Amino acid sequence: MTGKIFIIGIGPGGKEYLTLKAIDTVKECDYTVGSTRAVELFENVKNTISFGVKDLVETLKKAVELAAEGNSVAILSTGDPGFSGVLNTVLRLSTKEGFPHDNIEVIPGISSLQLAAARNHIQWDGANVMTFHGRENIEDILDVIDNGKITIALPSRKVKDMAQFLLDNGVDANRRVTVCERLSYPDEKIVSTSLKNIATSEFTYMCIIIIESKN
């Protein structure tokens, strides 16, 4: 008997940004799969399987196998599953394992990009929205950085390294940049300053960068 997979967006990290749908679904599932940080957001979890960056794909494969055996499985994805989340990976593994996509339900969450836009009063349907998570070709940002729109991005490396990359490629050192760090956590920090200052500053990996449009 084939079970079901729920790919659940858990928001930017703060428990208050979980949806009721996410909470209720996890409570009913036979297994919950996610990072330790993600799993700890939920109460009344039946069986948990934690993963890290190194064993992510292997653990997601196990989740698909559990669903194929007839279990209901919640897979927790930081932010929204469809933006730098695990959606594509789970779909690929499901196809490979012969698990029907009709038995997969995606429950969207609030992404950190949405929260960054909200914190900074940005109407973000007119922004360049980009992710560089897991990507080395950050050159793509150069194609849009001067198109007259604000750019909101998930960096692929340290924020200061990305800032230095922009400087090295001719972006004005005084360009206004906002870094939103650890959004929704108690130690959330938002810093707005010049690109040259960002290039010499230290931030955690949990950041969103907002680059103002060219004057």
Helix-strand blueprint:
Layout: E1 4-9, H1 20-28, E2 31-34, H2 36-39, E3 48-50, H3 56-68, E4 72-77, H4 87-97, E5 104-107, H5 112-119, E6 128-131, E7 151-154, H6 159-168, E8 176-181, E9 189-194, H7 195-198, E10 207-211
Parallel strand pairs: 1-4, 1-5, 2-3, 2-4, 6-7
Antiparallel strand pairs: 7-10, 8-9, 8-10
Structure keywords:
elongated, 5-stranded mixed beta sheet, about 220 residues, 10 strands, Cobalt-precorrin-4 Transmethylase, domain 1, 5-stranded parallel beta sheet, single chain, Methyltransferase, Cobalt-precorrin-4 Transmethylase, Domain 2, about 20% strand, alpha/beta, 2 domains
Quick structural gist:
The protein is of the alpha/beta class and 215 residues long. Helix content is 27%, strand content 22%. It has helices spanning 20-28, 36-39, 56-68, 87-97, 112-119, 159-168, 195-198; strands at residues 4-9, 31-34, 48-50, 72-77, 104-107, 128-131, 151-154, 176-181, 189-194, 207-211.
Q: List the strand order in the largest sheet.
A: 3-2-4-1-5
**End-to-end distance:** 60 Å
Name the CATH superfamily assignment of the largest domain. Tetrapyrrole methylase, N-terminal domain
Order of helices and strands: EHEHEHEHEHEEHEEHE
Mean pLDDT: 92
Shape: elongated
> Any low-confidence stretches, pLDDT <50, length ≥5?
none
Judged by helices, strands and strand pairing, the structural class is alpha/beta
Beta content comes to 15-25%
Q: What CATH architecture label of the largest domain applies?
A: 3-Layer(aba) Sandwich
Helix content: 25-40%
In total, the number of strands is 10
